[in-house]
Amino acid sequence: MITQLELADRLSRESGKCAAWLQGADAATQRVAAAANGYLFSVLLRACGHCDAECANLLKDGMLAIVVVFWRARNVCLCKVPICLGNFR
Predict the structure, then answer these.
(1) How far apart (Å, rounded) are the C-alpha atoms in residues 4 and 29?
(2) Are 48 and 56 in contact (CB under 8 A)?
(3) Which residues, at least 6 apart from 7, have a Cβ–Cβ distance to it below 8 Å?
(4) Are 12 and 18 in contact (CB under 8 A)?
């Protein structure tokens, strides 16, 4: 499985899909996020049916400040991008 992920990483970088995915991010973000493969991350999130497949975009778009509200022992995050709270319980 790891070999397949490494191959997918290499192929998406060689094809330019990884770099194209980062287009639009500012230069500083591109330098930091280039080590990660946001394109592959987004493909994998969609493939596994993750409830917040758009979270990969945080690598290139950044995020607004996260406000955490504690109410009756439940964590609620109000973010630029919706977050599936089910994964944090």
Answers:
(1) 27
(2) no
(3) none
(4) yes
Give burial (CB, 10 Å; 0-12/13-18/19+) of 57. Answer: middle
Q: How many CB atoms lie within 10 A of CB 5?
A: 12
Which residue is associated with the tokens 């022992």? 73
Copy the structure tokens of residue 41: 């991350």
What are the residue boundaries of the structural domains of the chain, listed by start? 2-88
CA 4 to chain centre: 20
pTM across the whole model? 0.66
Note the pLDDT of residue 34: 83
CA distance 87 to 89: 6
* Identity of the residue numbered 19: A
